[in-house]
Design a protein that fits this description.
CATH architecture: Up-down Bundle
Number of strands: 0
Family: Belongs to the major facilitator superfamily. Sugar transporter (TC 2.A.1.1) family.
Radius of gyration: 22 Å
Mean pLDDT: 86
Largest sheet: none
Number of domains: 1
Low-confidence stretches: 1-24
Protein name: Sugar porter family MFS transporter
Structural class: mainly alpha
InterPro entries: MFS_sugar_transport-like (IPR005828), MFS_trans_sf (IPR036259), Myo-inositol_Transporter (IPR050814), Sugar/inositol_transpt (IPR003663), Sugar_transporter_CS (IPR005829)
Strand content: under 5%
Bound molecules: beta-D-glucopyranose
Number of helices: 21
Keywords: Membrane, Transmembrane, Transmembrane helix, Transport
CATH superfamily: MFS general substrate transporter like domains
CATH topology: Growth Hormone, Chain: A
Order of helices and strands: HHHHHHHHHHHHHHHHHHHHH
Subcellular location: Membrane
């Protein structure tokens, strides 16, 4: 079962119209999907909020760089643990209760971080939020891929990705509003409100019909499907497909131990996620105001506004990926993205070397940062998640995706925990030049190892992998 299904294969106006009409035709289905996608919004809010709150926290508690890095990265430690535990949870207690648990942790973590009396409490509260994010980032796309009506499955999972970027933008905006009252406690605590809404939403969600069937609870599964699908023929088709899929034995560690081909796809998923994080995306997400400070924006207010523009570009460019991924293919988009990201980071690094003293240099610095964000949001952001779900064979898909999700958060943590130290050891300019080089290395890795999966069925990719084909050739037909 995929956690991130392929986006719809066709983008013709007729196909789009059918997606929209079938979405509109079942309000219950739309409600269910939107509620589950709210998890993405919370994920984004928690990523986005810390960049605005950190300067105030650092000032109040007089924190050094090291403690600040821990406040940022403790969330990723929790998320890595949460992602790896989520596979077990989502199977044993079910997707719905796993999402419910994530919602409760979101509420507790938000309130606790808002009321934290000292930096240690704040680190612990962000760890709890991380657990919530980790469980949600595995379970929500999985749940969506299982309940969304077949015709809109890809669109729904893209919506989840989009919600992450909307959450980040909303957090950047709320950072501005609350910075006028200079209150980091409100910035962090206010996220409890959408978290409570998410909790209420989850209570109203049905269990995933696929999970119910896998647990032998057929009548309940049927009842849910009847509410989600208007046409009884669709209900029958879904039951047939799921029964066939459930008949395939699922293996994780066992398959990994005996099958070297499966080890290759698991390794590729992990490598892709590491490169996604080494682009430096979250350096910008977490430390944007500070980077704008380096680029010559003197006041905190100016820095926060510039950060909002980053969030906006991130949302808009994600639409670009959704529109082009099935037309241009994965590899051309990734090559273009790596080149754009390397150029953005490289120019910023060079400018910091020369010194950003004029208004013109400041404008170029901002433009290169925005170029970097647009490059990421159009390519590495959504595409790495899509590829990670496509390259795993059916027998080991849950396991393979759990591993790559874990690696995403672990790598995220390493990048967040080392950025400020890199700045002081390598210097500002060299740090950004290093990210530029890593983006070029990402492009080379794409050339060497990434298969073109556009228009290729998941079954063929899995067959080619297990037959021992080279990773970059998995999408080839012969
Ligand atoms: C990445 C996150 C990142 C986000 C930014 C996601 O694809 O996995 O680490 O913060 O994109 O939009």
């Amino acid at each position: 079962m995929t956690t991130i299904a392929k986006p719809p294969a066709t983008k013709s106006p007729a196909a789009r119209a059918s997606v929209i009409s079938s979405l509109g035709s079942n309000p219950y289905g739309v409600f269910v999907c939107l509620m589950a996608a709210l998890a993405g919004l919370l994920f984004g809010l928690d990523i986005g909020v810390i960049s605005g709150a950190l300067p105030f926290i650092a000032k109040q508690f007089m924190l050094n760089d090291h403690v600040q890095e821990w406040i940022v990265s403790s969330m990723m430690v929790g998320a890595a643990i949460g992602a790896i535990g989520a596979g077990w949870l989502a199977w044993h207690i079910g997707r719905r209760y796993a999402l419910g648990l994530a919602a409760v942790l979101f509420v507790i973590g938000s309130l606790w971080s808002g009321f934290a009396g000292n930096p240690d409490h704040l680190i612990a509260a962000r760890l709890v939020l991380g657990l919530a994010v980790g469980v949600a980032s595995f379970t929500a796309p999985l749940y969506l891929s299982e309940v969304a009506p077949r015709q809109v499955r890809g669109a729904m999972i893209s919506t989840y990705q989009l919600m992450i970027t909307v959450g980040i933008l909303a957090a950047f905006l709320s950072n501005i509003g609350l910075s006028y009252v200079a209150d980091w406690r409100w910035m962090l605590g206010v996220i409890a409100i959408p978290a409570v809404l998410f909790l209420l939403g989850v209570i109203a969600l049905p269990d995933s019909p696929r999970w119910l069937m896998a647990r032998g609870r057929m009548p309940e599964a049927q009842a849910v499907l009847q509410r989600l699908y208007d046409d009884p023929a669709d209900v029958e088709a879904e039951i047939r497909e799921v029964t066939e899929q459930n008949a395939q034995p699922k293996q994780g560690w066992g398959l990994l131990r005996v099958n070297s081909n499966f080890r290759r796809s698991v390794a590729l998923g992990a490598v892709l996620q590491i490169f996604q994080q080494l682009t430096g995306i979250n350096v910008v997400m977490y430390y944007a105001p500070r980077i704008f400070g380096l680029a010559g924006f003197a006041t905190h207010e100016q820095q926060l506004w510039a950060t909002v523009v980053v969030g906006l570009v991130n949302v808009i460019a994600t639409f670009g990926a959704i529109a082009f991924v099935d037309r241009w293919g994965r590899k051309p988009i990734l090559y273009a993205g790596c080149a754009v990201m390397a150029a953005g980071m490289g120019v910023l690094g060079l400018l910091l070397h020369i010194g950003i003293t004029s208004t013109a240099a400041q404008a170029v610095a901002v433009a290169s940062l925005l170029l970097f964000i647009a490059g990421f949001a159009m390519s590495a952001g959504p595409l790495v998640w899509i590829l990670c779900s496509e390259i795993q064979p059916q027998q080991g898909r849950d396991f393979g995706i759990a591993v790559s999700t874990f690696v995403n958060w672990a790598a995220n943590m390493v990048v967040a925990a080392t950025f400020l130290s890199l700045l002081s050891s390598l210097g500002e300019s060299n740090t950004f030049l290093l990210y530029a080089i890593l983006n070029i290395a990402f492009g080379v890795a794409v050339f060497l190892y990434v298969p073109e999966t556009r228009g290729v069925s998941l079954e063929r990719l899995g067959r080619n992998l297990l037959a021992g084909k080279r990773l970059r050739d998995l999408g080839k037909i012969d």
